[in-house]
Amino acid sequence: MQDKLPDVRDAFSALARALQRMGAHRNAREQHVADLEPALLTLASVLTREPTVTVQVEPSTLICDGEVVYSEVARESSLCFRLHRDGVRSLTFTRGVSLEELLAFVHLSLPEAAGPGREDALTELWKADLQSISYTVVAGYQMIEEGAADDISARARGSLERFADALAPAEEAGARLAPSLLGEVERRPLETESWSALAQRTAATLLDIVASNFAGRDLSSLEETYGRLFDEVLERRDLDALTLVLTRPKALQGPHADGFRAVLGQRLADKGRAHRLLELSRRAPDLLPAWLAQLPASAGELLLDALEGADELPARRALLAQAAVQRLEGCRKSCEQKLRMAAPDVSRALLAALQPLPPAQRALLGSFALQHRSAQVRLEALAVVDSNPAIVGQLGQLLFDREPPVRMAAAEALGGCSARADEASRLLLATIGREEFALEDRALQTTCHRALGRLRSTAGFVFLQDRLAGSKRSLLRKKRVEEEQLLAVYGLAAEPSERSLASLEEAAAAPANTAKVVTVCKAAAHRMRQQLSRVRP
Hints:
Blueprint: H1 5-24, H2 29-47, E1 52-57, E2 61-64, E3 67-71, H3 79-85, E4 88-94, H4 99-107, H5 121-128, E5 133-137, H6 148-177, H7 184-193, H8 195-211, H9 219-236, H10 239-247, H11 257-268, H12 271-281, H13 287-293, H14 300-309, H15 314-326, H16 332-341, H17 344-353, H18 359-366, H19 375-385, H20 392-398, H21 404-414, H22 421-432, H23 442-455, H24 458-469, H25 478-493, H26 498-509, H27 515-535
Antiparallel strand pairs: 1-2, 1-4, 2-3, 4-5
Helix pairs in contact: 1-2, 2-4, 8-9, 8-10, 9-10, 9-11, 13-15, 14-15, 15-17, 16-17, 17-19, 18-19, 19-21, 20-21, 21-23, 22-23, 22-24, 23-25, 24-25, 24-26, 25-27, 26-27
């Protein structure tokens, strides 16, 4: 973190120089842009390495990571003094800050801009609504004197209690007779044409109040208001407003940000709202990731239901599956069931979503898909579980699968289960020893023998050595013996060891073996000697 401090100092030094030059030609806005460019370039350089830069605001200094990065004389028109006096206690610059935002920010501190009607710095920052420059304020900051709000509230409450009963009938009658504040012509622009823009401004304002820690005791009311605004936007199917209402809370900062998002997330997890959001997100792609990012940990079942019933594009199905797996603790049983029995596209999406999990957990969940009716799902499940020794038994069962590619993938996976080599070898030997194995595809036969050699078990080595020696020559035709010897060579070659090398050299020198067997043995022995020479001390 310390590496960024020199650049942060340079950035704020350039900002100080820009303020001086801008004060000298305050009406030349084009020149202001040129003055600020060096500061922006230096700040942007820092933000390429750090997503944010936060400085604490003191009356005459800015502090980053405990070090002073900017200082000035404390006076009414100074940047630090104005911000600190008006309640600002930190500034955060986010990657992507633009020249226009930086220009708007520094205009808040120009001495020449000060005047009798100028608002405080906090109000000006709030109105500017800078997307890449955020701030925090001192806890309890108020525009009125300490205690005045409580006094006003108490007096108002007393007045209402004394006169509520007497005023109620008159108010009710007056409400019936009073004319509308706005006529039809004045209401029309507010009812339709500008509603979306109004909703977006309202959402931004509510979030700014929460981020600035101005909510106080009204935080729960603001959360409810924001939720009702979301419902209204969703009901109207206003995609622009809906996108803003969903995406802006993700960037919310401040002490209440997590709680605010949690309350909103519970509302977003409602099944009815989820169904409408999924439907609308097909027309607005940004809605789906924004919705998924804010769902609570308890929403796993909701996401699995959405995944099961969705006629989605693969990319959308992948997002739903990833979000469900991220909330696995609340939906493990349902996830296991869908891996085993759901539609192939659903099971495959869930299998792909398991990849970030730890290997043992990934293998345990992926093993449920090994029972799926679709051969493609079973194949992809074998890739997910890989060679995890915890599922050796299930891999052995798949050696008898009805689909040759599945049998081959299972044999390959068994060859990697060295932690349970004896058990895996027994399963492979049982398969190779079947009469039907001679009718299997040559590639599958080779894979099983290689897997046996990779396991390095004693039983596997003895079997391969006997086959290479042609111990059943008197019982089988010559061609069959040669094929079995070649398969044994492939198996022994998969175990680079002194014992395998000795068996290959012995077979290469045996006069009874065919020329093809001798040639293959010599080639395998040559490669093995090279391999062993690289690992010998």
